[in-house]
């Protein structure tokens, strides 16, 4: 594991780390904020933040405004990359497929199956890597994300019952099987058989019986992708049908950017902290 | 005036604006955050944030974490660029001279005298431009800045008694006449006569009788530039001699980055708001 930077911030420490991933077969970079509570030797609950299309760990690390709240609440905040990257990793000229657009699935189609294994990376490998170097309590994990990363947070929570104490999302893709971003990515990574898509689609997972106890979603009403790609009301409806407590908060005037995310970040962190017993 | 973007954030609105500057003879871009208090038609006090070497308006706008506090306190936050830019504007390949490094002076040496008029721009032109489009109360102005911009905030406050209700700085250059960054910039913009330098050097200005009532400075102890370029203790000493209330807070472990600035930003905004009656 290579430490790329260690920086004091808000009383804690912001780390950026690179490591060789066995899941993806590539070097992967992630950031970890460790709050001051860890200075006394305490293990801390951890929240995983999954980023959206085109992002790396850096976007939320620079613009997410999460450190003050994490320092107050005693949360470790981990921001992974959104795909494998580098020479030899298949890519695509589009911004919404290939590098920067892993969609948090394990690809089954060539040429992506070898490296595009983001679900295994996030669920199986990264927690162990982080726990080997940082004082995380893996019995207390929460997950959130933005857009494609909101899809990742929702589907990974629904696919791994009991793993995450709480799940929330900012402007998530909730029904990738029904929108252009998801149709393109799932065709490329998973193939044409739409029955496999349902196991990576939050709305379909809920319809097919997957359960979490509750979900918090914030969504800007002025988000350009709201109706074409995100459609959070589809998840609210599926949750209502399934008896899942889904809070969908619509915010007039807010768009899809980090100005929106940073506005509601502290709210989400407090909501997770209450459920994590932080 | 061209609106480049208008984005909802923290209950207020983040604007990025471009305009033709008469002071610099170039297009200039700045950002303005307008807090929710202005929605009711109130005029709001304004804080000017002057950025450091290599920066534009964008660095603090993305990484400064000022919006939440400004929205709570009812402050308008303006972040100008650090120099004139564009074709026909003299530049230098170094990061610490020319474009991105205006040092908040009106240059007197050629080829810089025509465009590098950042003091006139910040003190005379920009307040009128901002007041023409945003609900600022120009009777209540505060100023702060980082590094080269801390030098700008301190010297512009000392050179314009009564203009700014309060002045603070993050890791400022306090004695440019005595350090490499300042010697290079002042030689280039002002010429070899060091007596003119004293009128743009915070420590020399205080020694020569300029006064503000108080100064707040935060400084990281792990800042790589602390001893070579910044030397805030020189200003603390000059203020002590002059009877100016200068609070210099040293922070172990903190560096020169926006991780440092964002940690103490809300503190500075609250300190200014108390003095502005916000």
Polypeptide structure, described:
By secondary structure, chain A is an alpha/beta fold. The first copy, chain A, contains 10 helices and 9 strands. The first copy, chain A, has helices spanning 57-63, 67-73, 118-133, 148-159, 180-190, 194-197, 202-207, 226-230, 232-242, 258-276, and strands at residues 2-9, 12-20, 27-34, 44-50, 76-79, 136-145, 166-170, 214-220, 245-251. A 9-stranded mixed β-sheet of chain A has the order 1-2-3-5-4-6-7-8-9, with helices on both faces. In chain A, helix 2 (67-73) runs parallel beside helix 10. At the A-B interface, strand 1 and helix 10 of A face strand 1 and helix 10 of B.
Shape of chain A: globular
Helix tally of chain A? Answer: 10
**Rg calc of chain A:** 17 Å
What is the oligomeric state here?
homodimer
Quote the distance from N terminus to C terminus of chain A. Answer: 28 Å
Largest sheet of chain A: 9 strands, mixed
């Amino acid at each position: 594991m290579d430490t790329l930077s260690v920086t004091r911030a808000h009383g804690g420490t912001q780390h950026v780390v690179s490591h060789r991933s066995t899941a993806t077969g590539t070097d992967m970079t992630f950031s970890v904020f460790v709050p001051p509570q860890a200075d006394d030797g305490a293990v801390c609950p951890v929240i995983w933040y999954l980023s959206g299309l085109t992002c790396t760990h850096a976007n939320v690390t620079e613009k997410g405004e999460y450190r003050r709240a994490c320092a107050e609440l005693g949360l470790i905040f981990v921001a992974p990359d959104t795909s494998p990257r580098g020479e030899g990793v298949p890519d695509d000229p589009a911004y919404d497929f290939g590098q920067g657009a892993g969609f948090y699935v394990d690809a089954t189609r060539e040429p992506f199956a070898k490296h595009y294994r983001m679900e295994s990376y996030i669920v199986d490998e990264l927690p162990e890597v982080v726990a080997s170097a940082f004082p995380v309590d893996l019995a207390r994990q929460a997950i959130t994300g933005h857009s494609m990363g909101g899809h990742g947070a929702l589907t990974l929570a629904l696919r791994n019952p009991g793993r995450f104490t709480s799940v929330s999302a900012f402007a998530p893709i909730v029904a990738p099987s029904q929108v252009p971003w998801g149709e393109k990515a799932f065709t490329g990574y998973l193939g044409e058989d739409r029955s496999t898509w349902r196991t990576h689609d939050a709305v379909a997972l809920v319809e097919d019986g997957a359960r979490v106890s509750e979900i918090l979603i914030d969504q800007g009403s002025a988000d350009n992708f709201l109706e074409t790609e995100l459609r959070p009301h589809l998840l609210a409806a599926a949750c209502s049908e399934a008896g899942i407590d889904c809070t969908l908060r619509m915010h007039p005037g807010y768009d899809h950017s980090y100005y929106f995310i940073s506005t509601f970040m502290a709210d989400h962190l407090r909501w997770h902290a209450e459920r994590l017993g932080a």
